[in-house]
Write a structure and sequence with these properties.
By secondary structure, this protein is of the alpha+beta class. It has one domain: Lrp/AsnC effector binding domain/regulation of amino acid metabolism (RAM) domain (Alpha-Beta Plaits), CATH 3.30.70.920. The chain is about 20% helix and about 35% strand. It has a four-stranded antiparallel beta sheet, with helices on one face. A two-stranded antiparallel sheet has the order 1-2. A hairpin with a 2-residue loop joins strand 1 and strand 2. It is globular, with a radius of gyration of 15 Å.
C-alpha cells in the first residue's frame, strides 16, 4: 500500500477488546439467488446474520471472526459459492 507519505509496510486492523475482528460483506449474486445465497452464508461459522437487500449489493453479511486469517478464509468461502458474482468485505475501523 502507498499513501501520500510514502509506502506503508503494514496495516493495523482494529479488533474489539476481546480480539474479535468485525466486518460486513457486500455480495452480488446471479438473478433469483438472493435468498438461497443469504441462507447458505448465514450458516457459516463467524457469520452473525446474512440477509437479502435491495441496492448495489444483493446480500449483506455481518461477520465476527477471531482474526484476519479467519476473515480471509470466510471471504473465500463466500466468493466460492455457486450464485455469487462478486463480494466485498468491509472491516470495522475505529474513528
Amino acid at each position: 500500500m502507498v499513501t501520500e507519505q510514502g509506502p506503508v509496510d503494514s496495516v493495523q486492523v482494529m479488533a474489539t477488546e476481546d480480539g474479535i475482528v468485525k466486518a460486513c460483506s457486500l455480495i452480488r449474486v446471479r438473478p433469483g439467488q438472493h435468498y438461497l445465497v443469504a441462507e447458505q452464508i448465514a450458516s457459516f461459522e463467524g457469520v452473525k446474520s446474512a440477509f437479502a437487500v435491495v441496492g448495489n449489493a444483493d446480500v449483506v453479511a455481518s461477520i465476527e471472526v477471531r482474526n484476519m486469517r479467519a476473515l480471509g478464509a470466510l471471504g473465500t468461502k463466500i466468493a466460492d459459492l455457486a450464485g455469487v458474482v462478486t463480494s466485498e468485505t468491509l472491516v470495522t475501523a475505529e474513528a
